[in-house]
TrEMBL record:
Keywords for the protein's UniProt record, in alphabetical order: Cell membrane, Membrane, Transmembrane, Transmembrane helix
One Pfam family matching this protein: MFS_1
Source organism of this protein record: Leucothrix pacifica
Subcellular location: Cell membrane
Name of the featured protein: MFS transporter
Topology in the lipid bilayer: Multi-pass membrane protein
GO MF annotations, alphabetized: transmembrane transporter activity
Transmembrane segments: 21-39, 45-68, 80-98, 104-131, 178-196, 222-242, 254-273, 285-303, 309-333, 345-368, 374-394
Length: 461
């Protein structure tokens, strides 16, 4: 078997990855600075502010990601991403002068809205840059690794920075990181956009990604596994502090190290995912096994009282398994859509996965107040439901080419001469893609099937 080349051999990917790293570091510094700013403004009630930070991130993703994803196919992606980076830089810079908690809430929400427009569109660019699936999988691995490393290292970097500057200066560094990211994006040669076939109104374009995603069986399975990731991840994020410092009576440092174990497990999985997919598992089997593995650490938590070392190992297992799902998800989304529709599909994946967190966060807090074992049982049952739904909705034989039927119709939209557009021209229609009235004969045929303008429903077999 020919070994896949490294994605870093691609200049465009190197610059995109550098932009991602830069903005991730800056965002990580801001998370620490926000906690300190919240304490300055609210004192012992700072948790209210931090709760709003988490809630606004999830709500902005659920509400605005499909809107941006449905409309961005009409805009130049490079300019869109650069504009959002500049917008985030300005908003983060404003945090430097915040003295009123209401203004802080507004700025945080707006930053998260812009991030909801940036992240999925950025994700949708990568498979255009790296069309070879093996190379793309390695790129997903590095991207996930960068995210997890930021999660583990940012508090340490912020702590070092605070030795020489005030926490307000961390906002300046984050603003600078977004500016550097924008510069890197401006120096990047983006692949030419493929003109899409969607011509409907605003609502049609906004709802397209969600409707298409929810009609695709493998993505239904992926969404169910996102529920497992959210259930187990919420257990880690919400209940670690209460268990380590409350039930075990240990220090804040112990909490930090236990949380870091989850990130370490995730980093290991991110590096192993390409090797596992190339040599041992297909996508479906790997992520379903990962879904089961995610649930196993909740069993000893429900039945016993693990010590801090055991808890760190359990959290590392959850981080490892969840990273297998999250790293593989990009392949599954890319496989399920046309090139022109990738932003809509990735935005739908971004929004719906955050919806799973919106469900699981309050459950983790509610059950956690009743006891760590109750939370483990409750969230374990939620995760088990997710695994069962994934097995049920995702066919074992996940073939891409499906036989299906088209009714006779007349319409017009931008199109290339693919398997659905074989017709005569009069000479005035121009180069492809072009728009003109055309006729579709009634036909039954088989090809790679995705939900798009010509395939509104998944075929039944």
């Amino acid at each position: 078997m020919k070994k896949a080349v490294s994605p870093f051999e691609n200049t465009t990917f190197r610059r995109l990855f550098a932009a991602q790293i830069t903005s991730l570091i800056g965002s990580g510094l801001t998370q620490v600075a926000l906690a300190l700013l919240a304490f300055e403004l609210m004192g012992v009630h700072a948790a209210i502010v931090l709760g709003f930070v988490w809630a606004s991130r999830v709500l902005a993703s659920v509400i605005f990601a499909p809107i941006f994803g449905g409309l961005v196919h009409r805009l130049p992606r490079q300019s869109w991403l650069i504009g959002l980076d500049i917008g985030r830089a300005v908003l983060v810079l404003c945090l430097f002068w915040v003295e009123d908690v209401r203004l802080l809430y507004l700025l945080i929400f707006l930053i998260n809205v812009l991030s909801a427009g940036f992240t999925p569109v950025f994700q949708a660019v990568l498979p255009d840059v790296l069309p070879d699936e093996a190379v793309y999988t390695r790129a997903l691995s590095y991207s996930r690794l960068a995210y997890e490393m930021e999660r583990v290292l940012s508090p340490a970097l912020a702590g070092i920075a605070l030795f020489v500057m005030s926490f307000h200066a961390l906002f300046l560094l984050n603003a600078l990181s977004f500016v550097v990211s924008a510069i890197l994006l401006s120096l990047t040669v983006f692949p030419a956009m493929v003109v899409g076939e969607r011509t409907g109104g605003i609502w049609h374009n906004i709802s397209f990604g969600l409707n298409a995603y929810l009609q695709t069986p493998r993505l239904q399975g992926l969404l169910a596994l996102h529920l497992v990731v959210a259930a187990t991840g919420a257990m880690v994020i919400i209940n670690t502090v209460a268990y380590v410092q409350g039930e075990l009576g240990l220090s804040e440092q112990a909490t930090v190290w236990v949380m870091a174990a989850s990130g370490l497990g995730a980093m290991i999985a991110a590096r192993l995912t390409p090797w596992l997919l190339e040599n041992h598992f297909n996508d479906r089997n790997l992520v379903l096994i990962a879904g089961v593995i995610m649930l196993l650490p909740l069993v000893p938590l429900a039945l016993t009282k693990p010590d801090v070392i055991s808890l760190a190992i359990l959290w590392a297992i959850i981080g490892f398994a969840s990273s297998l799902v999250l790293t593989t998800s990009g392949r599954l989304v890319t496989r399920s859509c046309r090139k022109a529709d990738r932003s809509a599909y990735f935005s739908a994946n971004f929004a719906l996965s955050h919806l799973m967190w919106l469900i699981c966060y309050p459950l983790a807090g509610w059950w956690g107040n009743l006891g760590t074992n109750i939370a483990a049982i409750g969230l374990g049952l939620v995760g088990l439901l997710g695994v069962l739904l994934a097995v049920w909705r995702w066919p074992v034989k996940d073939v891409e080419a499906l036989k299906h039927w088209h009714e006779e119709m007349d319409h017009q939209h931008p199109h290339y001469h693919d398997e659905h557009h074989q017709h005569e021209h009069e000479g005035w229609e121009g180069e492809e893609p072009h728009i003109h009235p055309h006729h579709h004969h009634e036909i039954q045929h088989s090809h790679r099937f995705v939900i798009d303008e010509h395939h509104a429903h998944w075929p039944r077999h």
